[in-house]
Design brief:
459 residues, globular, 78% helix, Growth Hormone, Chain: A, mainly alpha, 3 domains, single chain
């Protein structure tokens, strides 16, 4: 069952990190600009952000096993459509369906692990689960580079089909419905006491969609309408949620300075992360004329180094408080990006790879302390809502990072444009370092029954 849940859970990060090295190939086949091809990532992240708030509640009501099975099957079908896509629009649609189904799989896979693992071994089960997911995400750029170099960009979507099939078969065979149904009945009782907020969820979805439309680099009347509607719709959403008995997202969460700083920080951190995942392949493959495999190796610095040092950041924050490692980590990220803002220093894949390794070091140090600070700043009865809000901010940051990078290169992929992009990302990292001063300087001890939460550098 662990194999099945992990196979499903890795689909989301793997199909984000692997796709980065395929973007130049997609641009060449369909004759697209950088701003247009960036929608393959921004649409994906945006759709995940819209779906996440409701996916957990749907699993509580209809069964996590059932929603997981439906999610992996839909992900496999969406990937098969992407393999045969003969137009960019079809590829975009397939990516949206991947995102929606991936959000269902992400929330339900963790619930299945908790439900199936014996209480005495639940920590061990989650540790193995996190290891499998993080390792796959870290290897994504390298594996994707090899596949794209050998078989082309469509091969990335081919790989997702058997992975989804393994996930569906493993959970279908080894996790019996009876166990899942018992968990669902217990959850249903709690769910009846915490009803959904359909109006709030609808307004949240509309707000995210309007935000994404307003963010697009192509100026047209629809973008103008979205930009004008963004602030009024946000005001309506906040007022409705403040009056709701069971809000989908409670704006009062942001009254806690550590939580507000953590959400703003993870938003900015993911702007940097996905900005790099967009800029680096274009720099390495289009300007330095290296292979997709080399591009994947360069990006491995972010995910690989980040995964290795993440435990160090968490342990340091337990001893020294959450503020210091997060602020220092963001300064390290800025230091890794700043040299790449000078075109002469971004003239080889080796120097770019070293810069990405430094960025990964900073992200690994800052990630876990930031997330710990977010969840320690709210009461135990609001952790679920806080998690949904935190992760939504993280995915929206990815949308902004890709969109900004694509807009900079809209006129063409040039050395000066790529360097400008890295300079902007370095400035964002410095801004997040300042924001991180709002995190607590001394660690708050978790409750004895609280489970540790890991924050991956890959989303």
């Amino acid at each position: 069952m662990m194999l099945g849940a992990a196979s499903g859970a890795i689909l989301v990060p793997l199909n984000t990190t692997m796709l980065a090295v395929a973007l130049p190939g997609v641009m060449a086949e369909f004759g697209l600009g950088a701003d247009t091809v960036s929608s393959l990532i921004s649409l994906y992240l945006g759709a995940v952000a819209i779906t996440l708030p409701v996916s957990g509640s749907l699993g509580d009501r209809f069964g996590h096993r059932r929603l997981f099975m439906g999610g992996v099957v839909l992900f496999g079908l969406s990937s098969a459509i992407a393999v045969g896509a003969h137009s960019f629009i079809v590829l975009q649609i397939a990516r949206v369906f991947q995102a929606v189904s991936g959000a269902f799989v992400s929330t339900t896979s963790a619930a299945l692990i908790r439900e199936a693992a014996p209480p005495a071994r639940r920590g061990e089960a989650f540790g193995i689960f996190d290891l499998l997911v993080s390792a796959s995400a870290a290897a994504g750029p390298f594996v994707g580079g090899i596949l794209v170099g050998a078989f082309g960009w469509r091969s990335l979507f081919v790989v997702a089909v058997p992975v989804a099939a393994i996930a569906a078969l493993s959970v279908g065979v080894w996790l019996r419905p009876a166990a899942s149904e018992r968990g669902t009945r217990r959850q249903a009782g709690a769910a009846s006491r915490r009803p959904l907020d359909p109006v709030g969820l609808l307004l949240l979805g509309m707000l995210i969609v309007v935000f994404l439309v307003a963010l697009r680099p192509v100026a047209n009347w629809l973008q103008g309408v979205a930009a004008l509607a963004l602030v009024p719709l946000a005001i309506v959403f906040v007022r409705v949620e403040l009056r709701a008995a069971h809000p989908a997202v409670d704006p009062r969460l942001f009254a806690a300075r550590p939580f507000a700083a953590a959400v703003a920080g993870v938003f900015g951190n993911t702007v940097v992360l996905h900005g790099c995942f967009f800029l680096v392949p274009l720099l390495v493959e289009r300007l330095l004329h290296e292979s997709p495999t080399t591009s994947g190796l360069v990006l491995l610095g972010i995910s690989g180094v980040g995964a290795l040092v993440a435990p160090l950041g968490g342990r340091t924050s337990d001893l020294r408080g959450r503020r210091m490692p997060v602020a220092v980590g963001m300064l390290v990220i800025a230091a890794g990006l700043a040299p790449l803002a000078i075109p002469a220093l971004a003239g080889s894949s080796l120097t770019v790879g070293l810069g990405m390794a430094v960025v990964g070091l900073g992200m690994g140090v800052a990630g876990s302390p930031r997330q710990a600070a977010a969840f320690e700043s709210v009461g135990p009865d609001r952790v679920g809502m806080a998690a949904g809000t935190y992760y939504t901010g993280r995915y929206l940051g990815g949308v902004v990072g890709v969109t900004v990078a694509g807009s900079i290169l809209a006129a063409g992929v040039t050395a000066s444009g790529v360097s400008l992009g890295f300079g902007i990302l370095a400035a964002v990292a410095l801004g997040v370092a300042v924001i991180s001063l709002g995190l607590p300087g001394r660690a708050v001890r978790p409750a004895p029954d609280a489970a540790p939460l890991a924050d991956s550098v890959i989303d």
